[in-house]
Specification:
The chain has 277 residues and is an alpha/beta fold. It folds into two domains: 74 residues, Winged helix-like DNA-binding domain superfamily/Winged helix DNA-binding domain (Arc Repressor Mutant, subunit A); 171 residues, Rossmann fold, CATH 3.40.50. It is built from 14 helices and five strands. It has a five-stranded parallel β-sheet, with helices on both faces. Helix 8 crosses helix 13 and helix 9 crosses helix 13. The protein is globular, with a radius of gyration of 21 Å.
């Protein structure tokens, strides 16, 4: 029986329902949180969280959390199962439905104030470095290329422990580190981001949970929905989000962005970098 099944079988108080809504909306808050963090996120007291755990059939919070982690582990192993499955129906229609929902759900939970502040930081930062897990590296490259067409001082962190240290060693309080990663979270990325944040760099995190390793140390945190129509998780919503951040950054840079793009375009024309046809 899943957590959702257990919850549906019980009548809950208003406070317990807030805990349930939190867990059902983002199980990682329970899986990687504590009694205190779950209570704070749900806007209830610690005792309400404990009562909720026992009411839905667990011996206590630790048992409830273990169940949530088991379910998440199952989700993380889905690629090995998905590749063996062939869902019924039109695969094109299925992919369309899932990807549209990914973007809609991601944008529905955006905080306008946080989004504006993050874009402002990307425009004003002395330097912007982008780091990503292996699966999200394509999104990181796309973001760095687009930002680099609007302003200088943008790069992608190199992989490998020595190269990574070289990329992040000089980040300071006037810089922004953009981190993109989803479960399963890469240890090297999480460790590098935690170290950079401890050294004073501001972190803009894009992940699948507000309590992911990179989100926990972030100045600005964005959660993306990454449901996959095939064997792997989707980065369509992450790409849509980073495109939005680039658009807002361009607006904040104004004429500076225009001059930067014009200069690049003139250089491409002069060197014949682009074919006219």
């Amino acid at each position: 029986m899943t957590l959702a099944d257990r919850i549906r079988e019980h009548d809950l108080s208003a406070g317990e329902r807030r805990v349930a809504d939190l867990i059902l909306g983002d199980p990682s808050r329970l899986a990687f949180g504590s009694v205190a963090t779950v209570a704070a996120d749900a806007g209830v007291g610690n005792s309400t969280v404990m009562r909720f755990a026992t009411k839905v059939g667990f011996g206590g919070f630790s048992d409830l959390q273990a169940a949530a982690r088991d379910e998440m582990d199952g989700r993380l192993r889905q690629a090995t199962h998905r590749i063996r499955q062939h869902p019924a129906g039109d695969p094109v229609a299925r992919a369309h439905e899932i990807e549209v929902a990914n973007v809609q759900e991601t944008f529905a939970q955006l905080d306008a104030t946080v989004t504006a502040a993050a874009a402002d930081a990307l425009a004003r930062a002395a330097h912007v470095t982008v780091i990503a897990g292996d699966a999200a590296r394509g999104v990181a490259l796309d973001l760095s290329i687009q930002l680099g067409m609007l302003r200088g001082g943008v790069d992608v962190a190199d992989v490998g422990s020595i190269a990574l240290s070289r990329s992040l060693a000089w980040l300071g309080r006037d810089d922004v580190l953009v981190a993109i990663d989803t479960a399963r979270y890469e240890r090297s990325v999480a460790t590098a981001v935690e170290r950079a944040a401890a050294d004073g760099a501001r972190v803009l995190a894009v992940s699948d949970s507000h309590v992911s390793p990179i989100a926990r140390v972030a100045t600005w945190s964005f959660t993306v929905v990454d449901t996959g129509a095939g064997p792997f998780d989707s980065f369509v919503a992450a790409l849509a989000l980073t495109n939005l951040l680039v658009t807002l950054t361009a607006r904040r840079l104004g004429r500076k962005a225009v001059r930067h793009i014009d200069r690049l375009d003139a250089d491409w024309d002069a060197t014949g970098a682009l074919r006219p046809d």
